Amino acid sequence: MGNVVCIGAQWGDEGKGRIVDKLSEQADIVVRFHGGNNAGHTVIVDGIRTVLHLVPSGVLHKDKVCIIGSGCVVDPEVLIQEMEMLAARGLIDMASPARLVLSDQAHVILPFHKRVDKARETARGAGKIGTTGRGIGPAYEDKAARRGLRVHDLIHPARVSEAVRTGVMYANSVLEALGAEVYTGGELEQMITRLQEQGQKLKPCVDDCGARIADAIAEGKRVLFEGAQGTLLDLDHGTYPYVTSSNCLAAHASVGSGVGPHQLGRVLGVLKAYSTRVGEGPFPTELNDDRGEALRQKGGEFGATTGRPRRTGWLDLVALAYAVRINGITDLAITKLDILAGYGDLEVCVGYELDGVMLRNFPHDIQQLQAVKPVYQTFPGFSDVPERLDSLDQLPAGAQAYLRFIAERLGVRLSIVGVGPGRGQELVLNDVLA
Ligand code: GDP
Ligand code: IMO
Ligand code: MG
Q1: Of 3, 190, 193, 401, which has the highest C-beta tally within 10 A?
Q2: If one looks up domain 4-103+206-267 in CATH, what number appears?
Q3: Candidates 3.40.50.1000, 1.20.1560.10, 3.90.170.10, 3.40.50.720; CATH matching 271-428
């Protein structure tokens, strides 16, 4: 089939960006299908670090078409900034960005969505979700409430005004109830004018992304669907309510880009060799001690979007088995193996015990999840992971055993191993776009 969906198998930040950059060598089109600039996908090429929040991570390859799909929510200010950064580096042409396509059906994140997001978090106090504050939740709420502004309306100046006025009316009622600053008439007019200008800047990129992908597939081109966030942040299947407001699962690549499910191809689950989470919510294998801090420092575990320290912990095979099942993962990409080198013996969670009983499945009830006791299996540590690899044999025996155990336990083939953040610091064992 030649297509692949690449998704996060944990709580986000698994290294999807660098894996998508690698796989883009073989794909013709790369499509983001959900989320917005809550995502931060890092790609490092020749020592230059690029963090992409909206534009697909295939953009550093100059001949690839990059699509922001219908399932995304787009902050025009952030997208324009990102496009200007890419244009300044000669990667896209701002005036006729032929290889950057923005779905006409994507929803627009409006300034008041960000204010509502932050006001809600403040009002929740200790019970906060720990959102990125980028207005993601409120934008998806307005979409579901059928009062959102879509990109095809954003590019018509006359249509912006009405949607924004309605949106502000609802936003103001929430802001007022939360004791936050409401929008005044002057601010509203300025907002409308700015959005109208932004719409005109983005207009050259706007197109029917489902049709573009269908045409490409008919011509035998290969499509790489780039997930954001991660399985356990999925609105339906994640650790609700400590989740994002979109569906992160592989199946959503179909809805979020307007192609049939049979066209998606293989499903590549990206996971770190250990676990991290940013924001609040249950994390059964979390290390709240010196070892957790050491992992954060060694792994550079600070958010690519907000700079917040990421929480760290052991690899959790109960959560990962759930991710394999609900995404239909066919291939694994395990990143950051190098970070575990020299870290001493390693624990891997192989079961959850609750009130003396071993659970068969990952619990949906977060109170249960918060109460489970992880059951660990210990693996001898390893040192000296080479900076580049041609075969698994070049890894220390301990690292090979660790990887083999993960793949066997999950019943999924291991297709990519990351041993460093840079382009080329990965071993590809199977062709996932075959
Ligand atoms: P994403 O959101 O899934 O794309 O991941 P992020 O970019 O937010 O976070 C992953 C971090 O790990 C980035 O800083 C990457 O440069 C880095 N990274 C990815 N793979 C590897 C790897 O195999 N080894 C090391 N040392 N760093 C990696
Ligand atoms: P990438 O694509 C890690 C988390 C936030 C918060 C929760 C809800 O880089 O892997 P939101 O702003 O979406 O309403 O926040 O989701 N979150 C992420 N965590 N990586 C991400 O994206 C994330 N996007 C959102 O920290 O806990
Ligand atoms: Mg990230």
Answers
A1: 3
A2: 3.40.440.10
A3: 3.90.170.10
pLDDT of residue 97: 77
pLDDT over 90 (residue 304): no
339 lines ligand 1 (CB under 6 A): yes
What whole-number percentage of the chain has pLDDT above 90?
96
- Probe ligand 2: pick from 75, 229, 272, max atoms within 8 Å of CB? 229
Of all ligands present, the nearest one to the C-alpha of 333 is: 1
* CB 36 near ligand 1, within 6 Å: no
pLDDT digits over 155-188, tens only? 999 999 999 999 999 999 999 999 999 999 999 9
The closest residue, in CA terms, to atom 20 on ligand 2 is: 12
- Kindly report the average pLDDT of the chain as a whole number: 97
Q: Is 276 helix (H, G, I), strand (E, B) or coil?
A: strand
Assess whether pLDDT exceeds 80 at residue 401: yes
Name the nearest CA neighbour of 392 among 382, 383, 381, 401: 401
Which of 13, 16, 18, 276 best tests ligand 1's pocket when mutated (most atoms within 8 Å of CB)? 18
Strand bridging mode 107-108 / 73-74: parallel
Q: What are the tens digits of pLDDT across the range 49-66? A: 999 999 999 999 999 999
Q: Which residues, at least 6 apart from 75, have a Cβ–Cβ distance to it below 8 Å?
A: 36, 37, 54, 108, 109, 114, 134, 135
Is it the case that residue 305 has pLDDT exceeding 90?
A: no
Class of domain 108-202: mainly alpha
Tell me the domain boundaries of the chain: 4-103+206-267, 108-202, 271-428
Residue 278 Cα, ligand 2 centroid: separation in angstroms?
Answer: 7
